[in-house]
């Protein structure tokens, strides 16, 4: 018998999953090339800025911009899931109407985020200890371009255009490297690196080259139903938690490390972060695959991606540990023992944080409200512990020894992973026996 309207035949659903996973794996492979390019960008930045003590300021500014971009990222994450779920349901009429409604919502949200960012960037820059008004202005430019690029990327992810995004990401890093190579030798300051990164990010707007596919005519369907409100709350908690786990340490470093220690830490954390850059595309694929599977019981594809992601983290951390001196010397063009000594604890932290992120993304894609909110609370607790210990350990000048933070982060992230894994296993068991966890 023919399926009911809006239903999907098993064969068609299998083809859809295959297409998502195949394009996602291509995305991952090309992203390795992008990761190498990003590392070269950091190497050029470190070589040019370390002598003047500007490398740490560049890192602080990047973290600051990412924090201001969180609200749009929260909204776009919810939209990406919502669209991916309806693509999995194969309800084409509903999908096209929803795409139109989501585009309108994200467009308005992007405009509002730009206005709010422009109003808040000056007072917040003081809280992040951004040293100059010119650097604040560069951060504002980076924020505006980043917001519009996030808008474009969210639409592309929702459409499952992983191969196109991978090619665009290669173009992004190419432009970044070209812009940095042209200007940093003449102007070795943090502003140059921020603007070069912004020039590369601008390339993401190439997504709109396929505007005919993105903006198909049709009746607009509002995404604002009960299911979307619920997921928006989970997405907000999840995205906030990811920032806390992956970038809040830079806010602590900016406020409590001395100048030379900031350069060493930012160099080490960028090298360690290459671990996430290499395997993070699998998180996007996991998120989309799990979103499409949520209505069913099959877990083989998402669980396989989760195990592949964990294996990638373990192998990457091992390689990073044994190659730490080479990586640091390659980045700074000289031995930097202080930075090399930071790699081991940072690599351990990155493993635990990466696994926590993966479980959190699973909760987001599964609409597990309680676990999603728990993930957000765990991220805030992690940031709060780092800030609290740094504040208690600071000397009269307001500085701490880097070892205080480096001993704390693996222990706290490891404990967080054990707690998160326990909650995930309980939620997964409940969802398999009695429907979706709430």
Describe this structure in words.
This protein is mainly α and 438 residues long. The chain has 2 domains: 1-224, no CATH class; 225-438, no CATH class. Helices cover 82% and strands 0% of the residues. It contains 15 helices and no strands.
In short:
By secondary structure, the protein is an all-alpha fold. The chain is built from 15 helices and no strands. The chain starts with 9 loop residues before the first helix and ends with a helix.
Residue fraction in strands: under 5%
Low-confidence stretches: 1-18
Major sheet attributes: none
Q: What structural class do you assign from the helix and strand content? A: mainly alpha
Order of helices and strands: HHHHHHHHHHHHHHH
Individual helix count:
15
Structurally, the number of domains stands at 2
Shape call: globular
Characteristics:
disordered N terminus, 2 domains, 438 residues
List the topology elements.
Layout lengths: L9 H40 L5 H14 L1 H20 L2 H36 L5 H26 L3 H22 L6 H12 L9 H4 L11 H31 L2 H35 L6 H23 L1 H9 L4 H30 L2 H25 L8 H33 L4
Helix pairs in contact: 1-6, 1-10, 2-5, 2-7, 2-9, 2-10, 3-4, 3-5, 3-9, 3-10, 4-5, 5-7, 6-7, 9-13, 9-14, 10-11, 10-13, 11-13, 12-13, 13-14, 13-15, 14-15
